[in-house]
Please model this.
Amino acid sequence: MAPFGGFSRPIGRALLWWLALLGTCCLFACSAPLTAPADFEAGAYQPISYEDLLTPTRLTPNQKVVAPAYFWQELAYDPLMLRQYAHRAGQPRAWRQVRFYAVYGSPQMRGYFNRVVMTPEQARAAEVKRLDHLRLFGEVGALGGEGLYLRVHRLEKIEEE
Model:
């Protein structure tokens, strides 16, 4: 009987070598965090309107932007479409540390956007409540296809007059 489930020795060794290489690559990919930059500089972020956030053709991945929004809530569901999961497969540990949040473009709840990504600690530290007017500083990320998300680096409350 041949070892390695019926494979001959050279094929079995090659298969084990490729599996070890794939496992090593996955280990490095899984450890990549979705972290905010250590040194925050507000001037490095391009101001955009909320409507620009809703139109993915106007934004590019890795673009640093600042946009106004009205906070709604942490999502109890995952807003990603099936084809967008390939992006998450490369960083499963990092994606478990963040949550999706929904925001609106106005206090009348117009312009729903459900792909704002931040850690629960960021939301707790800012003490955000529903319909708080915020300024979101973040980086645009690609999800595959035309999907984009906003990875929040920092958020500030906008004081209403």
Notes: The chain is about 30% helix and 30% strand.
